[in-house]
């Protein structure tokens, strides 16, 4: 017997259906069939459906009630286009779009009939139709109110007790370029458990090189973690605040990793090679914590949502620490592109010139493999980060400095990296994010990177509930005085915040800083420095 059915296809078809029906779609293999339910936001039954997977991104859906096929098609189209409210949280959207077409199939072996259409009764008789461990499906919230579930035993992850950096007794780590820094006269300091150069000549000169020519930074202290496997995209979509499905191959974006209670665990860059192969870069001080957290979530043994303890990732992924395989250099400044054009493989120069912000490409320098990413942390319009083998990093470091000498490139340390990022208004973990004030991405002015329209990511609900009464501002001193972290911000005679970072800006020839202040601060205010108030204003 021929029956009307719905063909659902597209790159996002699987994750779309995973959020729309109650069963676990990701476990369905090609040619496989499962029964499931279409629910509305109140967990009321729209219809019992049968789903068949015909390929990686192609599915057939058959309604048990043939008269509801057109209704189901309309419902799915509205969800795909984002034009219908399907959750009490009106911000939420289903991951689309997908293509939905009517077709006909021989359905005698596919249709499952169920006389009773009460969701509670169906769960009692057919609990296998409900995959409660999914991060989200329509009607999931309401189900917890109308059905009693036994809570799974899961561990509570306490990331605050995890060591964040090396203790004083531990030997400082060194990047592969450590001896090169010493040869060039770098002043070395302890930073997040690493021995790193703070400057070579002086911070102002290195800062100016970033703005007027180019500067080369060793950022090999940063953490690099690989995420691979069929579930990699969905894993990162749950772990991070940004919308991973918007990334194309060869693109990257900025995002946050939150704890279940909505606190910032780190801010990261996520890079997509393909939908089964990603890697992320995290802050040096947090790399141990982030690796441990990702492995804990991946184990499915830890609680990721206190309100819905059943929730877990859809499919385990392969996680790998890439610190032994990769280190990172940052070439930043207006002459960066010209320098790279002179040293990369000639066949790749045209691709490099076409590279857009946040894109990356695989190439080589003198036959040595390099991944070049159009990203950076200095606020420069032109700047790149190079992912290279630790064994070949010395050769590439010296090649850039040698071939780029006429274009003004010089080595730069963490001092210029900090002053340029403050000048650009970029946050630093522990200062303008998290830290003693537990500063959220919204307060830091970075809400764009938090996609609340995603039905679920870890920490979403807690972050939505957080009361916002403060914000991060970028300011300049109107009087000659140096703002330092912890200095009080005074407005109308009252302390309304604190300086979180301060520096001298060679570009503006002024002292500038970032501060965490009350929302109602005026444009002009004062900074208290050693008992005296100095005028400042928001930039």
From TrEMBL:
<dbReference type="GO" id="GO:0005829">
    <property type="term" value="C:cytosol"/>
</dbReference>
<dbReference type="GO" id="GO:0008483">
    <property type="term" value="F:transaminase activity"/>
</dbReference>
<keyword id="KW-0808">Transferase</keyword>
<dbReference type="GO" id="GO:0006546">
    <property type="term" value="P:glycine catabolic process"/>
</dbReference>
<comment type="similarity">
    <text>Belongs to the GcvT family.</text>
</comment>
<dbReference type="InterPro" id="IPR029043">
    <property type="entry name" value="GcvT/YgfZ_C"/>
</dbReference>
<dbReference type="InterPro" id="IPR027266">
    <property type="entry name" value="TrmE/GcvT-like"/>
</dbReference>
<feature type="domain" description="GCVT N-terminal">
    <location>
        <begin position="177"/>
        <end position="454"/>
    </location>
</feature>
<dbReference type="InterPro" id="IPR006223">
    <property type="entry name" value="GcvT"/>
</dbReference>
<dbReference type="InterPro" id="IPR006222">
    <property type="entry name" value="GCVT_N"/>
</dbReference>
<dbReference type="Pfam" id="PF08669">
    <property type="entry name" value="GCV_T_C"/>
</dbReference>
<dbReference type="InterPro" id="IPR028896">
    <property type="entry name" value="GcvT/YgfZ/DmdA"/>
</dbReference>
<dbReference type="InterPro" id="IPR013977">
    <property type="entry name" value="GcvT_C"/>
</dbReference>
<protein>
    <recommendedName>
        <fullName>aminomethyltransferase</fullName>
        <ecNumber>2.1.2.10</ecNumber>
    </recommendedName>
</protein>
<keyword id="KW-0032">Aminotransferase</keyword>
<dbReference type="GO" id="GO:0004047">
    <property type="term" value="F:aminomethyltransferase activity"/>
</dbReference>
<feature type="domain" description="Aminomethyltransferase C-terminal">
    <location>
        <begin position="471"/>
        <end position="538"/>
    </location>
</feature>
<dbReference type="GO" id="GO:0005960">
    <property type="term" value="C:glycine cleavage complex"/>
</dbReference>
<dbReference type="Pfam" id="PF01571">
    <property type="entry name" value="GCV_T"/>
</dbReference>
């Amino acid at each position: 017997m021929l029956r009307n059915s719905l063909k659902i296809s597209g790159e996002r078809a699987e994750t779309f259906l995973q959020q729309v029906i109650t069963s676990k779609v990701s476990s369905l293999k090609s040619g496989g069939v499962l029964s499931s339910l279409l629910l509305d936001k109140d967990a009321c039954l729209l219809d019992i459906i049968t789903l068949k997977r015909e390929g990686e991104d192609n599915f057939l859906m058959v309604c048990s009630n043939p008269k509801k096929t057109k209704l189901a098609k309309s419902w799915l189209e509205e969800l795909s286009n984002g034009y219908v409210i399907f959750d009490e949280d009106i911000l939420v959207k289903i991951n689309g779009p997908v293509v939905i077409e009517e077709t006909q199939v021989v359905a005698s072996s596919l249709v499952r009939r169920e006389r009773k259409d009460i969701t509670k009764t169906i769960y009692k008789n057919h609990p296998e139709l409900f995959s409660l461990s999914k991060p989200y499906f329509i009607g999931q919230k309401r189900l917890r109110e109308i059905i009693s579930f036994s809570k799974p035993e899961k561990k509570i992850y306490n990331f605050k007790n995890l060591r964040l950096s090396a203790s004083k007794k531990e030997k400082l780590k060194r990047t592969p370029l450590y001896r090169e820094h010493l040869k060039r006269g770098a002043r070395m300091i302890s930073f997040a458990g690493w021995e790193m150069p703070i400057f070579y000549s002086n911070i102002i000169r290195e800062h100016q090189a970033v703005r007027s020519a180019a500067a080369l930074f060793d950022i090999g202290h940063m953490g690099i973690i690989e995420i691979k496997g069929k579930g990699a995209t969905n894993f990162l979509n749950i772990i991070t605040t940004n919308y991973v499905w918007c990334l194309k191959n060869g693109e990257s974006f900025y995002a946050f990793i939150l704890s279940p209670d909505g606190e910032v665990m780190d801010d990261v860059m996520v890079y997509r090679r393909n939908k089964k192969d990603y890697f992320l870069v995290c802050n040096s001080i947090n790399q141990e914590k982030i690796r441990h957290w990702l492995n804990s979530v991946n184990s499915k043994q830890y609680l990721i949502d206190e309100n819905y303890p059943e929730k877990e990732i859809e499919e385990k992924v392969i996680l790998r620490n890439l610190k032994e395989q990769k280190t990172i250099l940052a070439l930043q400044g207006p002459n960066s592109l010209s320098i790279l054009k002179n040293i990369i493989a000639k066949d790749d120069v045209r691709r490099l010139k076409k590279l857009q912000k946040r894109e990356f490409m695989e190439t080589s320098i003198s036959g040595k493999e390099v991944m070049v990413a159009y990203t950076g942390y200095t606020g420069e319009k032109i700047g790149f980060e190079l992912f290279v083998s630790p064994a070949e990093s010395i050769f590439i470091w010296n090649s850039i400095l040698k071939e780029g000498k006429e274009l003004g490139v010089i080595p730069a340390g963490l001092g210029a990296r900090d002053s340029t990022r403050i000048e650009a208004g970029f946050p630093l973990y522990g200062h303008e994010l998290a830290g003693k004030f537990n500063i959220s991405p919204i307060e830091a002015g970075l809400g764009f990177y938090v996609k609340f329209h995603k039905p679920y990511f870890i920490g979403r609900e807690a972050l939505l509930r957080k009361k916002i009464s403060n914000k991060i501002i970028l300011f300049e001193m109107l009087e000659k005085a140096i703002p330092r972290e912890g200095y009080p911000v005074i407005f109308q005679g009252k302390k309304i915040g604190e300086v979180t970072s301060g520096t001298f800006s060679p570009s503006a020839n002024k002292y500038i800083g970032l501060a965490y202040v009350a929302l109602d601060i005026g444009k002009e205010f004062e900074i208290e420095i050693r008992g005296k108030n100095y005028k400042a204003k928001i930039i």
